[in-house]
Design a protein that fits this description.
Layout: H1 25-37, H2 42-52, E1 55-56, H3 60-90, H4 95-124, E2 130-131
Antiparallel strand pairs: 1-2
Helix pairs in contact: 1-2, 3-4
Length: 139
């Protein structure tokens, strides 16, 4: 039988792995109250929320745009470093380098606009539902 890596197996037996979770006082109070109202221990409550919660599905187009944003930001950072290095060495700014940086900013603005539109389209279409089987392990 194929193991589903997105959902934890339901296994009887002892739980031997420990995870430490730091909370503020108000978060701890909320957890304590919520667990008590649910008639569960805090550990049971947290497990029930973690393993039954849904993880947002992000369309591949949005992921691609997000990666493109990082690409443009890195490119602009590199151009700015080159401009600063040349300006420090020569005392003036090279017009070609400056134009490359401005073009990079234009590309970044366009990608940001497309990213925003893609995200808004997902939410306007109601496709922002989540799927409990989409969870990936943190390791």
């Amino acid at each position: 039988m194929e193991e589903n890596r997105y959902c934890p197996p339901v296994c009887p037996g002892l739980r031997t792995n420990r995870i430490t979770l730091r909370l503020t006082d108000s978060e701890a109070d909320w957890l304590s109250d919520a667990a008590w109202e649910s008639r569960m221990s805090q550990a049971e409550f947290v497990r029930s929320r973690v393993f039954s919660s849904e993880v947002p599905k992000v369309p591949p187009e949005v992921k691609d745009l997000f990666h493109e944003l990082f690409y443009h930001v890195g490119k602009i950072g590199s151009n700015i470093n080159q401009i600063a290095r040349n300006a420090n060495a020569s005392g003036y700014v090279n017009a070609t380098s400056f134009r490359r940086a401005v073009d990079g900013l234009d590309d970044l603005n366009e990608t940001c606009r497309r990213f925003y539109e893609a995200v808004m389209e997902v939410y306007e279409d109601g496709n922002h539902k989540t799927d409990p089987h989409q969870r990936k392990t943190a390791r």
